[in-house]
Amino acid sequence: MTKPITSVAAMTFVEEGLIDLTDPISQWLPEFATPRVYVKGSALAPVTEPATEPIRLWHLLTHTSGLTYGFHHTHPVDAIYRAAGHEWGTPKGLDLAACCRQWAEFPLVFQPGSEWNYSVSSDVLGRLVEVLAGKPLDEVLAERVFGPLGMTDTGFWTPDTDRLAALYLPEPGTKRAVRNDVFGKLGTARPEFLGGGGGLVSTAGDYHRFTQMLLRGGELDGARVLGPRTVELMTSNHLPGHVDLEAYGRPLFAEMPFNGFGFGLGFSVLEDPVKAKTLSSAGEYAWGGAASTAFWVDPDEDLTAAFYTQLLPSSTHPIRQQLRQLVYQALVG
């Protein structure tokens, strides 16, 4: 669940006045100065047109940039990503800066700001954070988030490999969980690619401190990471007209349901519990990880919940919604 952490780090720079939500990212990442948008054609021969406006910081935070993921398998641009080695990982030998230069050369799936699409936006956000700070992403996250919150067991790798949980995949046919040590060992050494969209390893205790900081308006145990108004802005629905993802998103994989959920600056936001068919409170904000991890924050109930499994991908089992039902049916008064 790296994306919300990267988003929080990015917003510390907004608070300091070093960047504005409406600033074009090309001011710091010039490779994105002239994006082009897919119009028609195949992955091998796409027809494109110039973007009508630049990719801005808020586009990255809200996943409305027009970028995509290779693992979606729903659009010709997804295939362009896969052909270049961007699917459930990145090409060997490329760091975050090099990957961003490649993504900038690919067409956007749509005009920036016109739709929602789960994408490498958070990874590009991580690169933007690196440039703003003049430091690698792991150092920025340690200084601005992990250090202040006492998250001593969180980073892009751990030398304490005996404590690292195994990762599992569903076996084709039987769907039984089988170990995948190729993916599971990625957290045992410093990776070439430090992505803002994934790759952190952590503990339940550490991530609980992160969610508690959010619940308390950006502060925990005397350490303030963000101002309360910033947290409020991040956890509001930024989709135009307060529509949900069903109306504004693309019908593909994401880390939350679409019906009744909007999207803020790095978090899903529950707009309509009735439409979402959930016991949760309106205003709940949340996110999940690719290996079926999940968290949510419910300010109305003064509640945070987090769940950690190691099953990839997260769409394998509906356990996230079942957890919500168990939690909320236990609340009385």
Automatic annotation (TrEMBL):
Pfam families the record matches: Beta-lactamase (PF00144)
Domain named Beta-lactamase-related: residues: 1-325
InterPro entries: Beta-lactam-related, Beta-lactam/transpept-like, Diverse_Enzym_Activities
PANTHER family cross-referenced by the UniProt entry: BETA-LACTAMASE FAMILY PROTEIN (AFU_ORTHOLOGUE AFUA_5G07500), BETA-LACTAMASE-RELATED
Protein name: CubicO group peptidase, beta-lactamase class C family
Source species taxonomy: Bacteria, Bacillati, Actinomycetota, Actinomycetes, Pseudonocardiales
